[in-house]
Amino acid sequence: MEPLPPPRELPVLLTPGTPTPPMALVLPSAEEAAALYQELSQNPGISTACLGPDVTTQYGGKYCSLYTEWSQRDLVQAKSIKFCRQYLLFHDGASIVYAGPGGACCEINNELLSCESPSGALKAVLLKVAGKEKEKEKQFLEVWYQNRKVKSIDLTALDKHGSVYDDDQFGCLVWSHSETHLLYVAEKKRPKAESFFQTKAPELDGSADEELECPKKTDAPIKGEQFVYYENWGETLSTRSVPVLCVLDIEGSSISVLEGVPKHVSPGQAFWSPDDTGVVFVGWWHEPFRLGLRHCTNRRSALFYVDLTGGKCELLSEDTGALWSPRLSRDCCHIAYLENRVLGPHQQCSRLRMYNWRTKQTCTVLEAVPRQVWGAFPGIYCTALPRLCWAADSRRLVLDTSQRSQQDVFVVDTQTGSTTSLTADAPQGSWSVLTIDRDLLVAQFSTPSCPATLQVAVLPGMGQETQIKWICLQNAPPVPGINWGIRTLKPPPDQENPQYEGLDFDAILLRPSEGPTVQKPPLVVMPHGGPHTVFSAGWMLYPATLCRLGFAVLLVNYRGSLGFGQDSVNSLPGNVGAQDVRDVQFCVEQVLQEEQLDASRVALVGGSHGGFLSCHLIGQFPDAYRACVVRNPVVNIASLLTVTDIPDWCLTEMGVPYVPNNLPDSAHLTVMLQKSPMSYINQVRTPVLLMLGEDDKRVPPVQGLEYYRALKARGVPTRLLWYPKNNHALAGVEAEADSFMNIVLWLLQHLPMASGTQRGAGSWGQPAEGQRSSPGACYRELSRFPAVSCAALEATAGGQGQGQGQAFLLHTECRQPDLPRRRLLRFSRHYSVQRTERGLAISRAALSTEIHNRLLGQDSPSGQRRAVLVRRPPQGHELLEVWDGSGRSHCVDLTALGKHGAVYTEGPFACLAWSHLETQLLYVAERKRPTLPAACPGHVPGAAGPAEDEDEEGEQFVYHEGWGEKLSACSAPVLCILDIKSNSVSVLESVPEHVSPGQALWSPGDTGVVFVGWWHEPFRLGLSACSNRRSGVFHLELADGHCELLSAPNRASFSPRLSPDGQRLLYLEGAVGGPHRQCLQLRLLTWQTRQTVTVLDVVQEPTGSESSFTGIYTDALPLQCWAADSRRALLCTPQRSRTDLLLVDTEASTITNLTAGSAEGCWELLTIQWDLLVATCSAPHRPPGLVMAELPPLGQELPLRWVPVEDTPPVPGITWKTLTVQQNSAPHSPQTFEALLLSPTGGTTPHPLVVCPHGGPHAVFDARWRPSMAALCQLGFAVLLVNYRGSLGFGQASIECLQSRVGEQDVADTQLAVEQALRYEPLDPHRVALLAGSHGAFIALHLLTRQPERYRACALRNPVSNLPALLGTSDIPDWRYASLGLPYSFQRVPRAEDLVVMLQRSPIIQAAQVRAPVLLCVGAQDRRVSPTQALELYRVLRACGVPTRLLWYPEGGHALTGVEMEADVFGNCARWLLQHLGQLPVEQHSP
After folding, report:
1. How far from 627 is each of 511, 602, 686, 737, 901, CA to CA, in Å?
2. CA 1023/CA 1039 separation, integer angstroms
3. Got the DSSP string for 251-299?
4. First-to-last CA distance in the chain?
5. Do 494 and 522 meet the contact criterion of CB atoms below 8 Å apart?
6. Is 1209 exposed, middle or buried (0-12, 13-18, 19+ CB in 10 A)?
7. The model scores a pTM over 0.85
8. Nearest Cα to 774, choosing from 1385, 1478, 1358, 1466?
């Protein structure tokens, strides 16, 4: 037994004029820093303690066992381990006679919760056990008696509930007083759900299609519920949604889920009532929606009692407060609990309240303390009372709380309200209570220089508490070389808060005390997060290790911190970004003046709100700091408002009250921006390291990305580390260690060392009359039509001559949804094509063949060879194969070669090109990233490893920018060449560093490569569906590596296509910036002269008849687009509400529309070879058909005779037309626009109408086949597809007229189209609904707010609802500026006036006007319109009482593509429309 060291004075090193001890140099190497971190991180921390029953010895003495649980970082395994240790305490009731360990430590595996019974004879343990193979993890509840296990219950197999909660917010595991039952909290069992298209064995008495009927069995799966969104409780509680109270009868091994809990609350922190007849619990209000609960003690909650006999639930406390942590006294007469005000600061000075079980009365034991007074009780600031906190007399209780910058233990007399410190005469630092039982008190104690020690004491009798004697049971020696102290600072008069004058604050300074030199140490400043938290003078790994490395560390508890009284807390809301920033800067200046520290080497390290302050400081005081490291920082409160789990924080800290149904206000957003670090971004010059947790729900990583991009645009040295599977705290062992090492390396790199000091490294069936098809049946039937994705022609022997009788093979690849298997089926079809005197003769050459694992395919120029990129399971290796007439001739394992990363197979970069000599293949892949060890101290220094990786430590979590939506895995593309003969791969290294290459092809003679290069500096923006990104067409000479720009600079040039004779290069070109989709130029480069001409220019306003050329709007030219004469080229592009096939004479710049006036409204060219055209054509009522034609000679192109290859008949029951809508209110913009109306031909009229404005906004609904729209028609709906002004295909003037009128013109146009359709068509004006996605959903929301009586229902996909909030979360932030007519630059950050304009155009501010039920379909992986947009809308609509349902697709992107997702979205949207347009009964959906 070791006696506790006597109290020591705090070091006086913060007093001006005190002699300074010798200072240590910063260690010169990362290896030494890693070794030191590894050493100090081995100090364990105590998590729980439990005292066993007293045992009387044969000599009359008494002892008990003390069971403790500890946690420790295991850096080698990159995890946190738990272990237990037992101690023996001999005592006489008044003092501890002897204490010591009772055995060795023992590691704890898979244990989630444990609890001893009141008598100490039984122990309950909750375990997690890995499932076999593909089974999910299981949970078992075990009961132990003495030395044996008497019960083991598989909770997962019983299937009474979901996972048991093991957190400290809701979780509990409590024995009944009789020790016959166990009480715990678990997730409510969710009903089974399945796809609308789940295949089942037919039932003899069942209907063939019962998708719309209620299930007959209570446990039958519910269709369409797979992706229903379940709200959760935010950061670290994202798997907690609907908790339920559960009781286990130990003898019967049966589980019951308690009913009777009010539906508007979520229960937790439960325990048994005194007589075991009921359960007491805390219930948190979750209506109208859930907010983040972690570290938020201001959430409305109350104390409840549910009677197990009658199921009646009784409210024990007031229901207007925020309470938690109820604790039942030993005599079962009183319940003590903590209480705060609802909302306001998330953490406050709390009241201690007590409920008398017998009298049913509640009293206040301790009130909140306005001002902390030296020597007096500071108030309660703890996150919870100890689980066992009552003394044996059931009158006193023990708690720990912050007292300024320390943490002390107090005993409270609940009758008189008096408090006594139990640690006033003990060493100063951080004390916390672990447990008290029979007045044996167990606590832990630590200081900034001493890791946690285990302390025990006997609580003296009433009135004698100051005589307490602490005994150290498990000592931890102080870490040498660290001096620390606390100083108090008072802000200067000009920085006083006039409402709360006289407040002061503290700072803790750690400084090195060893070293042979007298060099002044650099200073690392660390403001805490919260902001309402506090740095207590306890053991903290990061500051201690930095100090041992030679840094002084300043921990600042600015005004607003806990432990200084409620006035200090209240002084900060409304003053963030000012008062807290000034406090930190004042503290830094004072310490630099009074301490021997190097003022030229000062750095900032902060997380969350501490990162907010750090970013403010480098912006407001740019010359004061040489380096900055921030973890998940708040940088833009205005954009944080809609993405965080605690939106109330954003308003509260601005000094604005939070109300759940409040709508965004431009004045509030202006203030938020003004108080954010982003408003000072132009002043920042300090190098910044950002560390972001991918799963952070509190400050989502889009905040850090916004800051990262802004810094890069301004040339500030910036680095970003991205930690998958880590949340706000980056608390995973691997992430924590890697973060520390990167912090050290960043500081060593950017804090200049003194001379001589080394720096760190740096056939069609119609439903019978009166019957209606189900949504599932319609969709299943209409989605079965395959779509041809690509085609290639191969000349057979003698087939390339010019005479008649030429023979060809046509190879096609098709795609078709496979609903039962929930995947996209790919298969090939082959046809024989014969040129005859009568034209083309076509026949099937073989049966269809399914394609497996193929990623890319390309025929050689001669058509005799084919290159195929495949992925081979199970390892997933990428293989490039070459096939010829005799079979597979070559196969190269690209993955095994390790020359690059994954090959690009989709998107704007991808290509697979044969050289003209057919000896080489050109493709694009991700640049190889080195196989990197983590910057983790768990790796033994000096251990053998790959030599080339030695300088790459710390790179494991470096952030690699992606190209946004659909392209998030694409970061650094490289051009790669495979030499087929040698099977070798080379990566071309002479591509300019500032561009990302793609769309490559061989130059004439195979001497070089032509490619498109997209500028990626200063940072990447979303590229999918964005033809306005700066790019050029380059030529790279392979012999000397010379790279030449062929196209015009400062333009967006792409889609190069080389003519058959190799003399002409055709490409598309548009303006940089502005609308993402525009009318494009068709440009032509003569290869020999390098001269470029414009073949077709931008069309501002189409002239002449409706069939006149309206411009080029395509995403890309066909891969094969040249005619055999190398003069004519073909392309497909929207022309008003059609997509037509155009022939362009590149010499005469003339255009021939080859498909004008055809019955089909959409034509797509698959290929042209030997002047044979292969295309698909479709219409809204006709699935795609495959056709061919022979291109006549120049000047004889019309009429063109199309020959069907695969014909598809029109779908019966659907008719369509194009409506022209006249707009008379805009004198200086195009007057007309169009809409497509699909109508059912059967059934009764008038028909209900579904209105669909398209997204973009610069996109178009062309008259193509859309299975979902056809299915809606089959269900009896008319569908109106609106091409409002701004749509593609109507001229550039139409596009530009929408700029600065978004949210006005597009909305008005859509409504005008609706009114005209209702006026002239047989439609029901009382049954109108909206169905839209993205910007179309933005328009739909506006219509709901402006015409609330017109629309009966609405279904939206990934809607845009709040433009200002989208700025920091979208991969295309430039769109928000451009769409409103505001200029955009990479350097631009939002200004207050920008936010005002954006908010005024946002539908969210008028959400209170919405009356129609809203269905939201949201993709969790959407990079374009962050899912937080829909979540904010969901919460606002629910708060306003609007019937709302949200479907959450975990793997869904912006378009929600994928067979299963598309089918589920349609099924749920169709059911929603049928339900709310009066065709189905209203159903009750899950939350």
Report:
1. 19, 7, 6, 20, 33
2. 31
3. TTTEEEE---S-TTEEEEEEEE-TTSSEEEEEEEE--S-----TT-TTS
4. 57
5. no
6. exposed
7. yes
8. 1466
1111 in Cβ contact with 1092 (< 8 Å): no
Catalytic residue among 439, 645, 696, 1371: 696
Q: How far apart are CA 746 and CA 1294, in angstroms?
A: 51
CB 248 within 8 A of CB 184: yes
How many residues belong to the chain?
A: 1487
- Residue 608 a catalytic site member: yes
Rounded CA separation 555/561 (Å):
12
Mode of pairing for the β-strands spanning 1031-1037 and 1043-1045: antiparallel
Closest of 956, 985, 45 to residue 451, by C-alpha: 45
Q: What is the pLDDT of residue 10?
A: 35
Measured distance CA(457)–CA(465) in Å, rounded: 11
Q: What is the DSSP string of 542-606?
A: HHHHHHHTT-EEEEEE-TT-TTS-HHHHHTSTT-TTTHHHHHHHHHHHHHHHHS---TTSEEEEE
- Residue in 608, 614, 773, 1027 annotated catalytic: 608
Amino acid at residue number 1028 = N
Rounded Cα distance between 632 and 128, Å, is 31
Phi/psi for 1083 (5° steps) reads: -110, 150
pLDDT score for 762: 35
Compute the distance between CA of residue 1147 and CA of residue 123 in angstroms, rounded to an integer.
Answer: 89
Q: Which residues of the chain have pLDDT under 50?
A: 1-28, 203-217, 516, 754-772, 799-804, 939-951, 1227, 1481-1487
Tokens of 711: 């810094």
The pLDDT value given to residue 26: 47
Q: Are 675 and 578 in contact (CB under 8 A)?
A: yes
Are the beta carbons of 196 and 1463 closer than 8 angstroms? Answer: yes
Q: Are 524 and 746 in contact (CB under 8 A)?
A: no
Q: Please tell me which residue in 668, 728, 939, 1035 is annotated as part of the active site.
A: 728
Specify the pLDDT at position 518.
56
Q: Which two tokens stand for residue 850?
A: 């399914």
d(CA 827, CA 786): 9
Query: How many whole angstroms separate alpha carbon 1426 and alpha carbon 640?
Result: 12
Task: Please confirm whether the linkage preceding 1199 is cis (ω < 30° from 0).
Answer: yes
Rounded to whole angstroms, the Cα distance separating 610 from 1035 reads: 49
Backbone angles phi, psi at 1479, to 5 degrees: -110, -10
Q: What's the DSSP call for residue 903?
A: B
Tokens of 1287: 């749509």
- For the question of residue 728 being annotated catalytic, the response is yes
| Euclidean distance between CA atoms 409 and 1032, whole angstroms | 69
Rounded CA separation 614/608 (Å): 10
Answer positive or negative: Cα dihedral of 1358, 1363, 1367, 1368: negative
Across the strands, what pairs with 1036? Answer: 1009, 1043
C-beta atoms surrounding 725 within 10 Å: 10
Distances (CA, A) of 1395 to 708, 1205, 1268: 20, 55, 37
Token representation of residue 1216? 């369509």
Q: What pLDDT score was predicted for residue 1480?
A: 53
Q: Return all residues near 575 (Cβ < 8 A) that are at least 6 apart.
A: 497, 655
The Cα 719–Cα 1395 span in angstroms is 28
Name the residue among 882, 878, 877, 853 with its Cα closest to residue 867.
882
571 carries an active-site annotation: no
Distance CA 549, CA 512 (A): 8
Q: State both tokens at 508.
A: 């803790």
- Cα–Cα distance, 1289 to 1153 (Å, whole number): 14
pLDDT at 14 (0 to 100): 35
